[in-house]
Each structure stands twice: as structure tokens, then as C-alpha cells.
Design a protein that fits this description.
The chain is of the alpha+beta class. 16% of the residues lie in helices and 38% in strands. A hairpin with a 3-residue loop joins strand 1 and strand 2.
């Protein structure tokens, strides 16, 4: 399969749109780098903006009778590394991980730095009490609990004001 076929396979106008898989995107990036190499030489620095799909946290959503629970794996992050925004249409979670390791042994020094960030928006169903939403991080798992709004209990008379 050539580069044109790979690009066309994920474009929205070719029938039903398919979400690209991590392997598809990485293969497409490798093909593109090989295609550009004769013109610009080493292309590794050109495509550094490609997202690293290994840092897209797994997210689960569970609905019970009285609440909606969103869980997300965020290893190595705590509450200070996360920003949550809640609207009637969605929950947006932004996280940033910064890590530095330093080792000094037998006359050499090693310093490694890693960082990465993500933004993920989870669509929310109607009927939630957004004012009572709670979030916590424990052992690398973010849990956001959003209670459902009180349901209308049945028939009620509405008085008419004169």
C-alpha cells in the first residue's frame, strides 16, 4: 500500500470515516519521512510535531442510576499536574508530565528529562448536576464523579398568579 492509499484510507470523504490507529499513523509518518529524505536530507527534526500516541491516557466512563463516573489512567501525575474544565457538553482534562532523573556514578553524570502533555474531552450526557462534580487522583488513576440531577418526581400543580 502506497503513501497515497494510506492517507486516503483515513480521510473523511472516502465513505465511512475510520479513526487512524497508532500503527497506521506511525507507518504513514515513516513513509512520509522516506519520501522527503532525498529532498531535505535527514527528516527526523521536521516531523517532531507528530503526536506521541503512547501518551494518550486510557479513559473509561461508567453510568449508574445516580451518577456518571469517568476514570483516566494518569501514572506519575497528581492533582497539581491536571486541569479539569466542565461544561454542559463535555469534561476537558489537560495533563502535563515533567520528569527529571539524575544519577552520578563512578565519575560520570547522567541526567534524563522527559515531558509530555495531553488534552482529552469526554462528551457528557444531559441531566447531570455539574455543580456537585468531584475529582480525585489516587495511585495514578483520576476519578471524576458527576451526580445526576434530581429527576422530576411526577405530577405537580403549578399555581397561577393573577
Amino acid at each position: 500500500m502506497g503513501i497515497i492509499d494510506k492517507v486516503a484510507a483515513v480521510l473523511p470523504w472516502r465513505g465511512e470515516r475510520q479513526e487512524p490507529q497508532r500503527a497506521d499513523v506511525l507507518t504513514l509518518r515513516d513513509d512520509f519521512e522516506r519520501w522527503l529524505e532525498p529532498f531535505v536530507g535527514d527528516t527526523r527534526h521536521l516531523l517532531q510535531v507528530m503526536p506521541d500516541f503512547s501518551w494518550t491516557p486510557s479513559t473509561d466512563m461508567q453510568e449508574t442510576d445516580d451518577k456518571l463516573i469517568v476514570t483516566m489512567e494518569v501514572p506519575g501525575l497528581d492533582g497539581d499536574d491536571l486541569d479539569l474544565r466542565l461544561t454542559p457538553h463535555g469534561l476537558t482534562i489537560h495533563g502535563e508530565k515533567r520528569e527529571a532523573k539524575e544519577a552520578k556514578r563512578n565519575g560520570y553524570e547522567l541526567l534524563e528529562r522527559r515531558y509530555g502533555s495531553f488534552v482529552r474531552t469526554v462528551p457528557l450526557p444531559p441531566g447531570l448536576d455539574l455543580d456537585r462534580a468531584e475529582a480525585r487522583v489516587k495511585r495514578g488513576v483520576l476519578t471524576v464523579t458527576i451526580p445526576k440531577a434530581a429527576a422530576f418526581a411526577g405530577m405537580r400543580r403549578i399555581p397561577i398568579k393573577a
